Amino acid sequence: MLVVAEDALRARAREYREELAARWPRSRVVFASKAFPCTAVQRVMVEEGLGLDVAGGGEIVTALAAGADPALLVLHGNAKSDEEIAMAAEHGIGLVVVDNADDVDRLEATGREHDALVRVIPGVEAETHASVLTGHEGSKFGLAPAAAVELIARIERSPRLRMRGLHAHVGSQILDVEPFARSVAPLAALGEFPVYDLGGGLGARYTYDDRPPSVPEYLDALIGAAREHLPAEAEVIVEPGRSMVAAAAATIYHVVTVKRGAVTFVAVDGGMGDNLEVALFGQRFEAAIADRLEAPDGELVTLVGRHCESGDVLVDGVRLDAPRVGDLVAVPATGAYCHTMANNYNGNRRIPVVFASGGAARLVVRRETWDDLLARDVG
Ligand SMILES: Cc1ncc(COP(=O)(O)O)c(C=O)c1O
Fold this sequence. Notes:
Layout: E1 2-5, H1 6-23, E2 27-32, H2 39-47, E3 51-55, H3 57-65, E4 73-76, H4 82-91, E5 95-98, H5 101-109, E6 114-119, H6 145-157, E7 161-167, H7 178-182, H8 185-188, E8 195-197, H9 215-229, E9 235-238, H10 242-245, E10 249-260, E11 264-268, H11 277-281, E12 288-289, E13 299-304, E14 313-320, E15 328-332, E16 353-357, E17 360-365, H12 370-374
Parallel strand pairs: 1-16, 2-3, 2-9, 3-4, 4-5, 5-6, 6-7, 7-8, 8-9, 11-13
Antiparallel strand pairs: 1-10, 10-11, 10-15, 12-15, 13-14, 16-17
Helix pairs in contact: 1-9
Bound molecules: pyridoxal-5'-phosphate.
Residues 32, 34-35, 53, 76, 169, 172, 199-202, 239-243 line the site of pyridoxal-5'-phosphate (PLP).
């Protein structure tokens, strides 16, 4: 199961909101729902006064179910469908981030008015895995500055669209503040607008050795650049996902078998069905036996999942205290993108999400059932 420390989640949301407001009062924190897209998490963000970034129709549906004000939603997507644009129109979503000229065609075709941001490629490389890098030249997201200029002019001529501002997002799991700061000037070069959405991307702490910048350090750099380059009266938005939720949750597994040989494999009742971060981009996690956390002299093991892939490794090399069948193993920092990318590989029933607060636990997403696995098979 995925256990979320609700108080930690709320504290992080508040920290982001207060630290941003202290540096740039005309500002908004918008949680990137994709990092943990379920109504319970989105509701916490709404209750803490945050907006929500929604990438597509599914996240619109859960955001609205969570009680979000549609005016505080920011719709993203590099391939928004007609249906998703229609949903934006129907619900009156606050900002639509235009990624391409086809978005503009579709928005105009709704016959409604829309506030638009244009997503710009800032041309910034950051040190992170290639699959989560998005602000570099050649990215599939957004428009190079010259193409953005053309689309901005088209939106400004549109009778239905209001050109509100610009958006940039450098990438994810970025452990250095400098690329964020560098992403601001390329936006300023495109003109003055009322809104600048500077994206998310701050890295989370996954391993004992990781030292991600703190929220104040990140915002000092980002807002420092905003003060230098952006109009003082503009609204600034940030869209944290991973750094908002990763550290607030841990996945708890049962040890199913321990196989000792050249390598000791500790296999658990989960794996890449509930955590694709390892297989997708080699993210390292830590792990411990839940009731014997300290294991400086523990056995060096490879913690693996139950799926039919040799790549289904949760932690390649971790010390566990005398692991045995039936132990509970905790893998911390699984709050970001793990629930998101959970899947049914090998008939996996996706795991439940439990909120813990003040010594009490509450189920917020139930475990899938065998029947759920059959529910879509109609032929
Ligand atoms: C447009 C946009 N904003 C924000 C985010 C959140 O990024 P992160 O989870 O790294 O903070 C993403 C993630 O891919 C994104 O694409």
